[in-house]
Amino acid sequence: MGRYDFRPHRVHQAVTQLLATEKLASAPSWYNVIAAVPPTQTLVRTQPLKHHSNTRGSRTRKPSKLFQPEKISYKEDRLRREFFGDHPWELARPRVVLENDGTDARRRDWSHIRQEGRPLNGESVVQRQMWLMENVPDMSKAMAYDQARQEFYDERLQEDVERRVAKEEAVATGAYFGKSMLQIGMELEDKEYERWKAWATKEMMTEEQKRASGYTSVDNSSESISGDDPDLDAGLDESEAPIPAED
């Protein structure tokens, strides 16, 4: 079949042959529908007109990626890539994917970065930067990014102060929040360190015993040869006695 798959156009024909040979007891529910509305016969996309002038001797080459979807890009994509490249940990914050529906510009006023009913995140910086670039005269991309980023830092600092004060007030009234994430991480790290310390101590003792056993085996062999054994001494004396001469 090559690069193209024509099997969808032959579905009705194949089912008709199966019904004629009685290999199918009854026609599928979509049989009449596909007969009335067959698949499209257009296998290629409409190529856009090229307005540039062809030079003499040039060949018209057929595009090799006709069946791939076109790349969709927006102006905000470059701004998002820059912000999240400088602030990768912002991607680790929990976020609801249904926050944006594509019509934020109609309901939001990005003349200020804080929006009612919307959490502060990296997208707020992007939209604020876009608003500054489009509405403030002589505002470059770098200047708008610095201003939006500074407003973002100030709002985040205010949120941290409010959260810290709220926690201190709650603790003063008897609330208990348990261990923080930092304390839990330190306990897990200490536990893993103690486990490794016990394993390392055991391995060191094993190596020391192997090394000591090697030296002990050599000393025992020398002691066994030079030991004070009466039977061994008697045997040695007999072997050293002179042999009597024969008459």
Descriptive key words:
single chain; 247 residues; mainly alpha; 8 helices; 54% helix; 0% strand; flat
What does this entry look like structurally?
The protein is an all-alpha fold and 247 residues long. It is built from 8 helices and no strands. Helix 3 (75-86) packs across helix 5. The model has no long low-confidence stretch (mean pLDDT 80).
Topology overview:
Blueprint: H1 11-20, H2 31-36, H3 75-86, H4 104-107, H5 122-135, H6 141-172, H7 181-225, H8 230-240
Summary?
The chain has 247 residues and is mostly helical.
Mean pLDDT: 80
* Number of helices, counting only DSSP H or I runs of 4 residues or more: 8
Approximate strand percentage: under 5%
Order of helices and strands: HHHHHHHH
- Oligomer state equals single chain
Residue windows where pLDDT falls under 50 for at least 5 positions:
none
Termini separation = 115 Å
